[in-house]
Amino acid sequence: MELNKTETENLLSMLNSSDKDNYYVALKAIDAHEFDDSTVGFLLYLYKFSKSTYAKWKEEAPESTVILEKLLPGLSDEPLTYSRALTVMINKRVNKDSIEMFLERHVKELVTQLENMGYPTEKLDLSIKLKERE
Predict the structure, then answer these.
(1) Interacting residues of 130 by C-beta distance below 8 A, sequence separation 6+
(2) What is the value of pTM for the model shown?
(3) Which pLDDT does position 128 carry in this prediction?
């Protein structure tokens, strides 16, 4: 399986599904993927935005958890922050699509928080597109 935006979003939907079979299949598919420095951003994205716990990842996707632990020492002790994940993604020079996806989802969550606090957000139209690296 080639990881891209579409496949990653599909996997995230499966991970966050109430259907336990979808959840299990998604973690097994993620664990079977051979991540490299350019694609590890998709793994960080899936981990950060899945509703699953560290313990479940370690149990169902041990290979992927080892990669995450190498990238994020102490991951089992504390939740993954947006800042920490983004710092790793930038330092590893991951695929820019994974950074765009990460930032877009983060912004959507911020907009939802603003809505929940009563701020008018209907006039917001935010999109993120990274420039090519030099």
Answers:
(1) 96, 99, 100
(2) 0.87
(3) 67
